[in-house]
Recover the amino acids of this structure.
């Protein structure tokens, strides 16, 4: 089994906030993160938004998923502290099937062809 780590942000966000946080999460955890769409239904105002950032750690990753979750929590908290109007944030971890984790759990270094943490 692998682990899916999700970061949910809800509140007033800037245009580049999600990409900055994605970069920080990738640098700190060594995992590939991506943004997933959130169905907000009908929205009258563009002021408050919700974004979902996701990474999947495979069971063969050298770093335990607990460490990745803790690192993600630290990054999100540090990122929130830099804002005057702090968005709501949550970090969750849930198990995923091996097939999903095997394809999505590669690190940025593995994706670029460099040697990854698995050797």
């Amino acid at each position: 089994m692998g682990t899916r780590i999700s970061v949910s942000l809800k509140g007033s966000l800037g245009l580049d906030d999600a990409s900055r946080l994605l970069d920080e999460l990738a640098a700190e955890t060594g995992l590939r993160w991506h943004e997933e769409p959130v169905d907000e239904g009908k929205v009258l105002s563009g002021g408050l938004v919700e974004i979902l950032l996701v990474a999947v750690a495979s069971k063969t990753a050298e770093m335990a998923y607990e460490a990745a979750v803790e690192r993600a929590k630290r990054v999100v908290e540090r990122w929130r502290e830099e804002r005057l109007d702090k968005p709501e944030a949550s970090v969750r971890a849930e198990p995923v099937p091996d097939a999903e984790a095997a394809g999505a759990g590669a690190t940025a270094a593995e994706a670029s062809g460099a040697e990854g943490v698995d050797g």
User: Anything to note?
Assistant: The first strand starts at residue 2 and ends at 11. The first helix runs from residue 17 to 29. Strands lie at 2-11, 33-36, 49-57, 88-96.
